[in-house]
Amino acid sequence: MSYQDDPNCYVGSFPKDFTYGPFEQNGDGDSSSLQDDHKPRILLMGLRRSGKSSIQKVVFHKMSPNETLFLESTNQIVKDDINNSSFVQFQIWDFPGQIDFFDPTFDSDTIFGGCGALVFVIDAQDDYQDALDKLQLTVTKAYRVNSNIKFEVFIHKVDGLNDDYKMESQRDIHHRATDDLAEAGLHHVHLSFHLTSIYDHSIFEAFSKVVQKLIPQLPTLENLLNILISNSGIEKAFLFDVVSKIYIATDSSPVDMQSYELCCDMIDVVIDISCIYGMVDETETNTFNNESSSLIKLNNGTVLYLREVNKFLALVCILREENFQKQGVIDYNFLCFRHAITQVFELRNKCQSSGTDRRRSGTPDAVPNGAADSTESTSDHSQPQLA
């Protein structure tokens, strides 16, 4: 039997049981669950059939893009809890396109009050005037409730458009959207625009940038990656959440889309091979563990190197083959990097625990004195040094 016949595997993706956890759906949008959970939320909004549910299924539930053609239109609020042992901890709320903000049952304060980011999806292959009107209404309503929301606009379904039309559509949508907000008196509201499609890696790259804005530890993670690559001869490094293939951090050098796609494909290969040949202990739920690593040498002299950081995080590096000759130094530096990541986890958990205790006692939240210094000292003490 070939691996294509294995019901536990997807070809070119992940095994079905390699996931965050159970899927939860709340048809009535119970606001009490919103208030009880303090994880940041990402709201998916847009007109009907704009592709919101397809994005959610492809990125976080490993659905094949072709399968999304059979998804029914969303008629109720769908809650998706993204929660694992890594820095990726948030909720996604998929809203039906016909939602009415002026409906008395729509609690704007509760919905937008705890929102970290609002992703508005616009179908680039359709007349988007109605979508822009809905965008202006949505941003205005949300900003008045919570001025800290990160507003992201996905110009979606661009796979069927040529490059010139893509850029023209992005410029037009950007210009009209900002003008609409200016007329509403929201000159200072910033919108981030992304060209996306579920048929390539653009949707993962766009969601990576959205999630990164919700990670308070992002500067520390970037600093650790900068230290690692500068001492190891690495050209580019990504810290991936292997379930969703979004990168939660990268070094300060610009991100090349082709390099990101290579790293995503490498994660697919590692998980697929692990699904077929890996051995799972009784205490483990998947085959990606602290022994997981991979090395791929390309015919252009480039090396892709993957190492497991923790249960759901992987470090993927791109470097020249001649720089990989000192693999022992790279591996030692990686161990220092992984130890530093562990310290950041511990500090984050400590801060979250103290914040929970303060909320229970009624004390206002505050960042503990020295928290930033402690985080920075993590990177200093764990700075990899070349032998």
Automatic annotation (TrEMBL):
Keywords on record: Cytoplasm, GTP-binding, Hydrolase, Lysosome, Membrane, Nucleotide-binding, Nucleus
Natural source organism: Bombyx mandarina (Wild silk moth)
Reaction equation(s) it catalyzes: GTP + H2O = GDP + phosphate + H(+)
Gene from which the chain derives: LOC114246665
Superkingdom assignment: Eukaryota
Chain intervals for the UniProt region annotation (Disordered): 353-387
Coiled-coil intervals: none
Record Pfam families: Gtr1_RagA
Major localisation: cytoplasm
GO cellular component, one term: Gtr1-Gtr2 GTPase complex
Protein name: Ras-related GTP-binding protein C isoform X1
Family affiliation: Belongs to the GTR/RAG GTP-binding protein family.
Zinc recorded as keyword: no
Cellular localisation: Cytoplasm; Lysosome membrane; Nucleus
Gene Ontology annotations of biological process type: cellular response to amino acid starvation; negative regulation of autophagy; positive regulation of TORC1 signaling; response to amino acid
